[in-house]
Design brief:
- The protein has about 290 residues and is α/β, with parallel strands linked by helices.
- The strands form two sheets. Strands 4-3-2-5-6-9-7 form a seven-stranded mixed beta sheet. A two-stranded antiparallel sheet has the order 1-8.
- The protein has helices at about 5-15, 35-40, 60-70, 80-90, 105-115, 130-140, 155-160, 170-180, 220-230, 235-245, 250-260, 270-285; strands at about 30, 50-55, 70-75, 95-100, 120-125, 145-155, 180-190, 195, 200-210.
- The N and C termini lie far apart (about 60 Å).
- Helix 8 packs antiparallel against helix 9 (about 220-230).
- The chain folds into two domains: about 5-210, Vaccinia Virus protein VP39 (Rossmann fold, 3-Layer(aba) Sandwich), CATH 3.40.50.150; about 220-285, Orthogonal Bundle (Helicase, Ruva Protein, domain 3).
């Protein structure tokens, strides 16, 4: 068992370096000894694989990833954690800590510089507040990675992995499935973290697709349609599209009719193909 999952040890290291947790950065460090080995083993890494980790914290997951992969590039925004990581990861010469903002970092360049010739996966315990923005950024950039394995809030995991056409589905569900096949791997209780958050988490893996499951002639318009559709969940798809796309209701009625969709349909009932059909109808109207 790694000493990094000993709460007293972690508290001692953090205290030695004068570190205090930042609520603004959503810092909750994993200390459950069973979670990180399991997460690392399921992320798709092996001795020939490079791993990008986002938000290594005290290095608990990084330690596990370093043992099974060829190389780990850990992207940490908080410079106060650099001396902490220098201590906790001192035994690993295959880890590079990069002090940068994952929302601004050039990941294509990072992969080219650090992982030339390797398969790459992403594995991270994401701060709750950047879950959707960072996942969509990683997917939209079409990085040459085979999978993205992340720990997120359980509620977010349910939304991200929801099947199209189900009540749990939302804009993020449809957007994610355009790029990958998501799956929930396992649940993680709030008590697995230091400090403990108020909600449980879950580990999900996004298995990247080589091609989208539907053909959208205009991808930007496709995602605009999806966002508009879920803009007002309590209203019909017709009303949501009218408001979200700034179109007259009569025009939206024509769009839905040409796509073979009932006027009283709701966004959560739509399949990926139906969203693509609506997009084509919107495009034809313009």
């Amino acid at each position: 068992m790694s000493k990094l999952t000993d709460i007293n040890y972690v508290k001692g290291v953090l205290s030695r370096h004068g570190f205090t947790f930042s609520k603004a950065l959503g810092q909750n460090f994993l200390v459950n000894p069973a979670v990180c080995p399991k997460m690392a083993s399921l992320c798709g890494a092996d001795s020939r694989t490079g791993v990008i980790e986002i938000g290594p914290g005290a290095g608990v997951l990084t330690n596990e990833l370093a043992q099974i992969s060829c190389k780990v590039a850990a992207v940490e925004l908080d410079k106060r954690l650099l001396p902490v990581l220098a201590e906790t990861l001192a035994a690993h010469d295959n880890v590079k800590v990069i002090n940068d903002d994952a929302m601004k970092l050039n990941f294509h360049q990072l992969i080219q510089d650090e992982f030339a010739g390797m398969e790459v996966v992403i594995c991270a315990n994401l701060p709750y507040y950047i879950t959707s923005p960072i996942l969509m950024r990683l997917l939209e950039e079409r990085l040459p990675v085979k999978a993205i394995t992340v720990m997120v809030q359980k509620e977010a995991a349910d939304r991200i992995c929801a099947e199209p056409g189900t009540r749990a589905s939302g804009a993020i569900s449809a957007a994610v499935r355009y790029y990958c096949v998501p799956e929930q791997l396992f649940k993680v209780s709030a008590g697995s973290f230091l400090p403990a958050p108020k909600v449980d988490s879950a580990v999900i893996r996004l298995n990247i697709l080589k091609e989208p499951p539907v053909q959208a002639a205009d991808e930007r318009l496709f995602f605009k349609v999806v966002r508009a559709a879920f803009l007002q969940r309590r209203k019909t798809l017709s009303n949501s599209l009218s408001a979200g796309l700034s179109l007259p209701k009569a025009a939206v009625g024509e769009i839905l009719a040409s796509a073979g969709i009932p006027a009283n349909a709701r966004a959560e009932e739509m399949t990926m193909q139906q969203f693509a059909d609506i997009t084509a109808a919107v495009q034809a109207l313009s």
